[in-house]
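Input/output pair, single chain:
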Amino acid sequence: MEIINTIGRRKTAVARIYIKSGSGKISVNNRDYTEYFPTGILQYVVRQPLETVNEADKFDISANLTGGGITGQAEALSLAISRALCEMNVEHRPPLKEKGLLRRDPRMVERKKPGQPKARKKFQFSKR
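Output:
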């Protein structure tokens, strides 16, 4: 099997991954993913696409993550893994789509407006 390259995004985080057949090792920025993502929830988010198609120990994944925070990076990595699995085998698409793992989350931070302290918050009104 050749190496498959895909990309995933979430908020301002970008995940570029290289996936090949192997023993189930996931490395993120040259570190193990359990070290890079300290909480169990984020580790679950990363593993979720592989566990959905029952192929958790069949592929080695090398990922480069940039931008955003660790939650956005974990979800970007999840999207990239899902896309790679669909590229490998078309039969993986229905279970991944059913769980919503192939959808790029469009929510972004709203920009700050001039004359306001934040995006929607207004300065305190003073009558006198």
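The mean pLDDT is 94. The two ends are 74 Å apart (CA to CA).
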